């Protein structure tokens, strides 16, 4: 459930008739304790209704049941709204632990450090907020005052993104695959950095076709593509 609590039902109740102001629902239901909800109709039920129009602004769904037009309206009080971190901490309840808050959609500006002094000012603001609300950062995952950092297999700086040279080295040292599993491993590694290589799909095509087959038969064409792909990775990524 949304609260993070696992609830297990005992048995299905078939062909339960639910009367709504807009229509009558006849479905199979699994009785559960839903806290503040009366009934949940999932995607399977929506799919049965066929084509429908959704008005997200007014929280309304319109579809037809036979010759009858049905309009289901949502509850505006349940929509998302902005909330300050301070107010969130005051109103936090045990059942809220299953929710995540995305602050990126709340207009919070990013700290753009132009120099060391402004960087230190931004760090002071962040640390003050963390301390004020008893929040903690993982020290092992924090980097301060760096010109470039490693992130998800890439090295990121203020003006460029580079592939991790250790990953490129692993590609260079990768032996000729002896089976489909090893070939797919190589393609997975090189494919992660495909954006650095122009025409990657064309270069890797012979290997990709080989990886899709049920039987593995390495050919001269595969060897050529294998070496060309390695060479392209080294040249385009700028590895030395």
From TrEMBL:
Transmembrane segments: none annotated. Pfam families: RVP_2. InterPro entries: DNA/RNA_pol_sf, Peptidase_aspartic_dom_sf, Rev_trsase/Diguanyl_cyclase, Viral_Replic_Matur_Polypro. This is Uncharacterized protein LOC107990885. It comes from Cucumis melo. The gene is LOC107990885.
